[in-house]
Amino acid sequence: MTALTLSTAAAPGLRADAIVIGVAKGAGGPSVAPGAEAVDKAYDGRLAGVLETLGASGAEGEVTKLPAPSGFKAPVVVAVGLGAEPEKDAGFDPEALRRAAGAAARALAGAKKAAFALPLTEAADAGVVAEGLLLGAYSFDAYKASAEDAKGARAKANGNGKAPLAEAALLGGKPRDKAYKAAIERAAAVAEELNRARDLVNTPPNDLNPEAFAAVAQAAAKEHGIKVQVLDEKALTKGGYGGILGVGAGSASGPRLVKLSYTSPKATKSLAFVGKGITYDSGGISLKPAGHNETMKCDMAGAAAVFAAVVAAARLGLEVNVTGWLALAENMPSGSATRPGDVLRMYSGKTVEVLNTDAEGRLVLADALWAASQDKPDAIIDVATLTGAMMLALGSRTYGIMANDDAFRSAVHEAAEESGEPAWPMPLPEHLRKGMDSPTADIANMGERMGGGLVAGLFLREFVGEGITWAHLDIAGPAFNEGGPFGYTPKGGTGTAVRTLVRVAELAAAGELG
Fold this sequence. Notes:
Strand order of the largest sheet: 8-9-11-10-14-18-15-16
Number of strands: 20
Radius of gyration: 24 Å
Oligomer: single chain
Structural class: alpha/beta
């Protein structure tokens, strides 16, 4: 991952491959953002005009490169758009800084060092800039052969054959200030774990089955002092986890339920995070049509987010107990697969009539939610790429939040927005519950077609322990970016929900969660 430093050095004398500055979109054209005064001075105060001549407007994510002025040790200036110029005496929106830093870091692939002279008015600004550039510099190259560089070392490719930005210095940062140091240390821990979640989502399913995912979790748990328990097929059968077993029945790779427990001796609150981990979803007997299964390696993104969030909480030493439940299975068709019409007895004891085997995520989550409920945490949040209906409702960049408590739903929504993760609160209309009535079992895994994302949320609510506050995050839209990269978001796995979960844990530790 890109190495980070805080620097008080002046831009002209800093040895780097590039100086990154911010440009805002003003009413009369682009304007140079605070932090770049020394660079603008070297252009005799005409940098905004030069950029406008080059076609720059200051629009969010816009990147313009130009030769550095005479006397600079860096050869290139990279101007990145911050979007609309803020009101007088107001700072730039944190997400605008985060996205700008990410766009610049991606544009600097192949560079050894860059100096970021973006607006830093307080430690929090340093944190969001650091987070953005670390996420923007991400690349997934495990399966790409890359050419030997001049020194004989294999260069990591990021899609264009160039290594990610190696080092970044934040100009205007205060290296000896505890708040600044803490901000970039937090950014580094969260970004590294979020990027680990991206790696898992991007890993092809022939290399990441439930057993392999569980092994990754075990290794990380050992490294960071997290207690881990893995239930294999034998243990799941003995425990009566009918949902997880039913989904995994058609695969040659058996299912797993992984429990990760981070505990703090100073904790007064406990949280449980539950993640859907379908390492590949063919739809099962209710087979997905061609064109709908090519990206289904991403159906474990919820479990990846939960895993990353628990590890991040441990690395940050948060004063809250956090348990992560990874419900891992591969949904495949075969002679042993669950059929439409089968009835599964869940871990809770309830029976479920399976009307559609492609509505499998709710089945593994149901078992994991009930298991999490037995510990009686203060709150449970589940995360899942659960329904196409949520994508139709909110698009590809926003996830839905449902809950059994309106205040908690609002708190989670605020945490998401603070973290830079677009989300939207969604209802759980009681009239939709009747559509899941079954003449054969306690409940069916399908209901009314319209409002399918809400129906799925109502199904999950049935498996949350009585009196436990719960929220459901349907991340089907933003979990996997099939388009081009933007801001700090790459093509492929995005790591959606990791930052929301970490922020929720931080708020719980501080006694400020809803």
